[in-house]
Write the structure tokens for this entry.
Amino acid sequence: MKPKVTMIAWNQNDNYVVTAVNNHLLKVWNSSTGQLLHDLVGHADEVFVLETHPFDSRIMLSAGHDGNIFIWDITKGTKTKHYLNMIEGQGHGAVFDCKFSPDGQHFACTDSHGHLLIFGFGCSRPYEKIPDQMFFHTDYRPLIRDSNNYVLDEQTQQAPHLMPPPFLVDVDGNPHPTKYQRLVPGRENCADEHLIPQLGYVATSDGEVVEQVIGQQTVDQDEQGLEPSILDGMIRQLQLQQDQRMGADQESASSGPPNGEGTPRRG
């Protein structure tokens, strides 16, 4: 095997450089002299995650496609903590990304099965408030491109980042209770009736009929004469209100001082 570097990271004070090689080794180098200091052994597959601790220059985190997460002391060349991401009935889950919290007390990882893994000190009670499965009902909505090749949502003809806040659903498309819907930015102060999307039954490609948020139906389904969606109407109404506000802001900005001085008033 021809050795290739897959990832590289400096430690917090830049005294050390850590490289991940495709032979599953991590190598610690002196950043000033280029001298190899340690070989870190533990991974069994390629590593694409190297994260330095935000303030402790000794600590480096690594994670890879073998499902292993290691905390290393790179000054000594030793492992301090190890976790294997095993998924019941499916073997290990490859770890794709990790990040430390700013205070260095926690870190979060995402894996190939869509899980968010949170490690750290203290209790897990704050995280028990949220359901195990969380998706936006628009996550798998079809996209199209306009004449300028920009991406648009097929149903609303709007850029996805300009659409109103979506609803939270589980993996099968069933909406979560209203207390969870208020966790979505932009829905914190909505009335209860605006936090309960309508459910409907939709046939999948293999003929199976599943219950899901009706707002997921597409323009093609509308053309087939399916019952119109109350949720879609709500989304269009929210989008119209948002467009009107943006238009008022633009008019207010264009009516500002002609010489460009001062701050235009918002509509």
Summary: The longest strand covers residues 78-84. The chain has two domains: 5-120, 135-214. Residues 230-254 form the longest helix (25 residues). DSSP finds three helices and 19 strands in the chain.
